[in-house]
Design brief:
Layout (H helix, E strand, L loop, with lengths): L1 H15 L11 H4 L2 H6 L1 H4 L16 H5 L2 H10 L13 H15 L2
Helix pairs in contact: 6-7
Length: about 110
């Protein structure tokens, strides 16, 4: 039944010429990145679209509006259920993830 609902919504979006807010296919840069797969995909999903009871989508207006410094701080220091990655990732790795998240939201 759930599959039929998704199929009907997809058909409606195509007929109206609009796309859903969260694409099921993330930017190949982020979803193909071994760094993302190892550290982020468990919570944010393999396509960065979020996971139920896990981390939120990384494809959103809120994430797109976040500055480089805000994204770096959230990855480095964590916030809420988001763990700190300061001791686990280098500053360069954090910068790489931020660039890929931003690129994902420009599409």
């Amino acid at each position: 039944m759930k599959g039929l609902l998704y199929l009907a919504l997809a058909a409606m979006w195509l007929a109206l010429g609009i796309a859903p807010a969260h694409s099921e296919q993330a930017d190949e840069g982020l979803s193909a990145d071994a760094l993302y797969k190892k550290n982020c995909a468990k919570c944010h999903g393999k396509n960065a679209t979020g996971r139920h009871f896990g981390g939120p989508t990384l494809i959103s207006e809120k994430v797109a509006a976040a500055s480089v410094d805000e994204l770096k701080a959230k990855i480095t220091d964590g916030k809420g259920r988001m763990p700190k990655f300061a001791a686990k990732l280098t500053p360069e790795e954090i910068d790489q993830l931020v660039r890929e998240i931003q690129a994902l939201n420009k599409k």
